[in-house]
């Protein structure tokens, strides 16, 4: 296998050298709008899939910006990075995941990859040119098969969702190719890797405005519903992986992890564990709902106040009997439901998580209802009856 990879790399390098000598087939002068970042070969070698490719193509991914803070390398970027290094034998692996304090970036979700190939080094530049020519040709056929949203190199960006614009001005990225993936691409669920095409994966959903989405393993074929305004505010500022300062130290003390003053992996893991058992979206970030649960004296405002258990039950019957609440929902109605169910104050977050689901199912069983976890008129009336 190693000999085969070495022979493949030699063939690629020879082809790249020929392309450099011949001048390639640029789409226009380098630097001009629509022109590529470097001269691209007319017949790139490109990458080879290990599985037969179907006749149909993967759907064009829309632009799906960062919505979560998930500093874990996803499988699609890892596989492409390793294949690039095996195929071309040039450059080195750059980063995939990183902290969430460096601005909007798919790197913060582990679904962006850097291949370190410097435009000032001829062999590295030629390898980058070959890959970029291959991945963008024919309106991005290979980008679609890999689940790539966009690539950046040498101050130019090309996107699969705007191929008519060609290469547009960007910035930096002169020492590496940046590749950002759709969620299907990041999960490795595309035809290049599996041999089958699927539907667009819109990724995880933000539940509370101003917060992150909770990362998920399951693809989502529909767009997310609108996020709900957080039902609680605190005096604490939101913090995420990579943050530093006193607020992080305070959270570490409350979470029982070493107080380093830096939002590190231990803090991220402990935050997720807290969220998992206290009816919060498992975002791994210290947003207002999480601070309110973790540091209750920091609460400055609540949307749902003054409800006893019986008052919440009566309010639910009067206002929500004609609607259905399902797991995963974030809303004022959920906070009132949690109050009517008699859940602990720390868990009345307004998010329909596993604890709320368990309480609803237990209520349904006791009331002789279908134990499906969905809450509508019958459940509200059962809650009123149980609350007296």
Automatic annotation (TrEMBL):
<protein>
    <submittedName>
        <fullName>Peptidoglycan-binding protein</fullName>
    </submittedName>
</protein>
<dbReference type="InterPro" id="IPR058593">
    <property type="entry name" value="ARB_07466-like_C"/>
</dbReference>
<keyword id="KW-0732">Signal</keyword>
<dbReference type="InterPro" id="IPR036365">
    <property type="entry name" value="PGBD-like_sf"/>
</dbReference>
<dbReference type="Pfam" id="PF01471">
    <property type="entry name" value="PG_binding_1"/>
</dbReference>
<feature type="domain" description="Peptidoglycan binding-like">
    <location>
        <begin position="259"/>
        <end position="294"/>
    </location>
</feature>
<dbReference type="InterPro" id="IPR036366">
    <property type="entry name" value="PGBDSf"/>
</dbReference>
<feature type="signal peptide">
    <location>
        <begin position="1"/>
        <end position="27"/>
    </location>
</feature>
<feature type="domain" description="Peptidoglycan binding-like">
    <location>
        <begin position="343"/>
        <end position="382"/>
    </location>
</feature>
<dbReference type="Pfam" id="PF26571">
    <property type="entry name" value="VldE"/>
</dbReference>
<dbReference type="InterPro" id="IPR002477">
    <property type="entry name" value="Peptidoglycan-bd-like"/>
</dbReference>
<feature type="domain" description="ARB-07466-like C-terminal">
    <location>
        <begin position="95"/>
        <end position="171"/>
    </location>
</feature>
């Amino acid at each position: 296998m190693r000999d085969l990879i070495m022979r493949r790399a030699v063939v690629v390098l020879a082809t790249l050298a020929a392309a450099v000598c011949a001048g390639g087939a640029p789409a226009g002068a380098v630097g001009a709008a629509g022109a590529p970042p470097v001269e691209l070969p007319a017949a790139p070698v490109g990458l080879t899939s290990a599985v037969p490719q179907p006749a149909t193509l993967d759907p064009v991914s829309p632009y799906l910006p960062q919505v979560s803070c998930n500093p874990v390398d996803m499988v699609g970027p890892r596989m492409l990075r390793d294949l690039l290094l095996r195929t071309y034998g040039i450059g080195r692996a750059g980063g995939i995941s990183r902290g969430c304090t460096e601005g909007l970036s798919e790197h913060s979700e582990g679904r962006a990859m850097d291949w370190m190939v410097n435009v000032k080094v001829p062999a590295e530049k030629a390898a980058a040119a070959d890959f970029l020519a291959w991945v963008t040709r024919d309106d991005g056929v290979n980008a679609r098969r890999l689940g790539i949203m966009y690539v950046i190199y040498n101050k130019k960006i090309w996107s699969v969702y705007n191929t008519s614009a060609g290469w547009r001005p960007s910035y930096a990225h002169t020492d590496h190719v940046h590749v950002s993936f759709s969620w299907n691409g990041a999960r490795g669920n595309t035809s290049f890797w599996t041999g089958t095409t699927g539907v667009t994966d819109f990724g995880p959903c933000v539940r509370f405005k101003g917060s992150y989405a909770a990362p998920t393993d399951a693809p989502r074929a529909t767009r997310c519903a609108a996020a709900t305004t957080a039902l609680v505010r605190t005096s604490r500022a939101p913090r995420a992986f990579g943050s530093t300062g006193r607020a992080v130290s305070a959270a570490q003390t409350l979470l029982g992890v070493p107080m380093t003053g830096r939002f590190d992996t231990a803090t991220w893991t402990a935050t997720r564990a807290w969220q998992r058992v206290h009816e919060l979206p498992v975002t791994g970030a210290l947003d207002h709902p999480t601070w309110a649960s973790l540091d209750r004296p920091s609460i400055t405002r609540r949307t749902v106040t003054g409800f006893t258990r019986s008052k919440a039950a009566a309010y639910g019957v009067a206002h929500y009997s004609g609607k259905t609440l399902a797991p995963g929902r974030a809303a004022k109605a959920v906070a009132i439901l949690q109050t009517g169910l008699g859940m602990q104050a720390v868990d009345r977050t307004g998010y329909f998580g596993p604890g709320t689901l368990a309480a609803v199912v237990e209520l349904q069983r006791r009331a002789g209802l279908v134990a499906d976890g969905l809450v509508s008129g019958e459940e509200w009336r059962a809650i009123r009856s149980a609350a007296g």
